[in-house]
Write a structure and sequence with these properties.
By secondary structure, this protein is α/β, with parallel strands linked by helices. The protein is 45% helix and 11% strand. The protein has 2 domains: 145 residues, 3-Layer(aba) Sandwich (Rossmann fold); 67 residues, Putative phosphatase, domain 2 (DNA polymerase, domain 1, Orthogonal Bundle).
């Protein structure tokens, strides 16, 4: 099936931001006296909104991310992004090769998505086709965000292809009835052990070189083997 719409996740897919975001998140959690390992954080928090992370901390430690921590984290993250954030290798040139319309749907806040795309030169390629978990009731792994993006783009869910790097995002795409490719080209993948977790979820395809995407969209693989 050749899709009528490609829905990109942002962090870890369009931009290589996950190590930066995780560094700031772990510092904010530690500042509240909560100890969480990087391995646990990648496993439990990757691809989720800050609201979801905060709720998870209540369940695991009886304490949410406080308002002061969230405020400090936002400022620290944006400062770090301005110095170190980069687009995934090959972008934005690869976007120019795509014949299928595309948008972005991310767990991040709209301002953070726009900043990420602006800093990496990707914003002109997306314009207003930016959708955030803040626009729906339930974030990933619930399907709400992807369904919202598909409706806004006027494409049936079963004609959409999602590009994701997180178990939560892949699960959300599946629940939305969409095809999904697992992208493992981010610099956080090896350290976080994500490949095994994503392979277990059996996305329609797993690839680690964004340059392969245009051909994969035109001729999707169905054997679920990694490229």
């Amino acid at each position: 099936m050749t899709p009528n719409l490609i829905i990109f996740d942002c962090d870890g897919v369009l931009v290589d931001s996950e190590p930066l975001a995780m560094r700031v998140l772990l510092a904010a959690i530690a500042a509240q006296g909560i100890e969480v390992s990087a391995e646990t954080a990648y496993r439990d928090y990757l691809g989720r909104s800050l609201a979801s992370v905060s709720a998870s901390l209540i369940d695991s430690h009886g304490m949410p991310l406080g308002d002061s921590a969230l405020k400090a984290m936002r400022g620290d993250l944006y400062a770090l992004y301005s110095k170190e954030l980069r687009a995934s290798p090959g972008l934005p040139e690869i976007l120019a090769q795509l014949e299928t319309p595309f948008c972005v749907a991310s767990s991040s806040a709209p301002e953070r998505i726009r900043l990420s795309l602006e800093l990496t030169g990707l914003l002109p390629w997306f314009g207003d086709r930016i959708y955030s978990a803040s626009m729906v009731e339930n974030g990933k792994p619930a399907p709400d965000l992807f369904l919202y993006a598909a409706e806004a783009m006027r494409v049936a869910p079963n004609r959409c292809l999602v590009i994701e790097d997180s178990p939560a995002g892949i699960t959300a795409a599946r629940r939305a009835g969409m095809a999904v490719f697992g992208y493992l080209g981010g610099s956080h993948v090896a350290a976080s052990g994500l490949r095994a977790a994503i392979e277990t979820l059996e996305p329609d395809c797993i690839f680690d070189d964004m340059h392969a995407l245009p051909d994969l969209v035109r001729s999707p693989r169905t054997d679920k083997k990694a490229l």
